[in-house]
Structure prediction request, 465 residues.
Amino acid sequence: MLKKLWILFLLALVLPALLYSQSSGNFSTSLHATRAGKATWYSKDNGGFETLTNIPMDSLACNKCHGPTFADGTPIDNETYAPGCNDCHNFPQGTAVQQSTCLGCHSRQAAEINLSASNPIYTDVHRDKGLTCTSCHTTREMHGDGTAYASMREPGVFDAACTNCHPEATLADNQAHNLHKDDVYCTACHTQTVSTCLSCHFESELDGFKRYYNQAPVGGFVMLVRRPQDGKVVTASYQSLTHNGNSFYAIGIFHGHTISKEARACTDCHNTEIVNAYKTSDEIPVVHWDNNDSKLVHTQGVIPVPPDWQQALQLDFATYTGNTTDPLKPFDPTKWIYQETGADGSHILYADPLTAEQMDKLAMNVVSVEDGSTPLPEKFELVQNYPNPFNPSTNIEFRLAKTTQVTLKIYNLLGEEIQTLLSKETLSAGTHKYSFRADGLPSGIYVYKIETPEFTQVRKMTLLR
Prediction:
C-alpha cells in the first residue's frame, strides 16, 4: 500500500512536467529560449548599438538575463543557468504560470501596473476585468512553433490581437472606427501611454548595475509608426543609450498595457503643437535637457515618426558621472549631466515611419460634428475658405448631409494637382474643417475641389505672399 502511494506521489510530481514537455517540443526555437530579440536589436549587422560600442552581445550580462529564482523559488546559479521550463513553471503545483512570474521578467509591464495606482494613464481596461498575461498570449507564443524568430516584433510571433475579442463586425456602427479601420490599428487610438527608459548608461550595464536616467519608466506619450505587413498605424516607443560619449536610440512597435475603452480625440493627433512644429521647422522635439533644472524633460502627447525621422526627431542625452558600480544611488540627480543633442546612431526595426501623406493629414484641422450635437446639414456644401486671401495657411470647410466617401484636392489654374487632402475617405454626416498650408507655392489663385458620389463643387482661393 505504501509503495502504491509513493508511486502516485511521484507521478503527481512528474506527470505535469511530462505532459508539458510533450506540448512544448518547440521550446528550443522559442524566443523565451533563444533570447534572440536583444541580440537582433543590438547587432551591428542590423545597425544596432553595437556599431558604436564594438562590444559583442556574448560579452554582455544581459545576454542571459533571468530572475533570482526559478518559478518554484529555487535560487538560480549564474554560471550554470540556461533558459528552460522551470523558469516559468512550478510543476509540483501544476503547469499554470502565475502572473507574478511573468512580471518578474517583464518589468516594464510590472511598472505599468504599479504606476496605475497613482496615475490614471497607466490603468488598463483589461486588467480591470481581471485579465492576465495568459488571457491573451497563447501557449504557441510562449513555447514556440518550430520557427526561430529574430524578435517578438517579427510578424507571426504573436497570436494576441485586439480583434480576437473585438471583431470588426461588432464595431460597424462606430463612425470613428469606420473612418480609420483600414489605416489605423486599435492601439493607436486606445493606448493611453507607452513608456521608455532615458539614456540607459551602458558603462553601468557592463559593470552589472543597469543604470538609466532618473526613475523609470518615462510615459505620457505615444509614438506612431506603420506596421510593415499591412501599413496600419500603430503605437511605438524608443530606447535611448549612451556609451563613452556616444549616443543611440532605437524605435520599435510597442503596445503599452494601458488600454482605455474611450479612444483619444481627433485633436490629440491632428493639428497639434507637435505636428505644427514639424510643418514649420521640420523638427519634432522628443526629449530635451532643461538647463534651469538640470534634467531631461520628455515631450507629452502623440509623437508621429515622420519619413525623415533621423533628422526630424530631436533628442538630448544625459550621462552618469558617479560610481557605476554603486547599486545604492542609481537615481542620484546630481550625478547626471547633459551629454549632447542629437544621436550618433539610430535605427527602426520591424516598423516603418509614417508617410508624407500621413503627416499632411495629421497637420489638418479636423472637426467633425457628431449626430445629436448640432443639427445635421440638410445639403452638401463646400464653404468659401477662410481667411481669403491667405498666407501661408487657410481653412477649408465642407458640410455633408450623410456619411459618404470624400475626395478633396487642390489645383493651380492650369489644372495641375497641387495636393490631395482627402482621397476617398469615409466621413460622417456633419461639418468638417481641414487646414491647408501653401508652403513653397507662389502667390496666385488656386482651386479646391470636393467630390463625393452625390456631390461635386469647386471654389477659388487666393495666396498672397
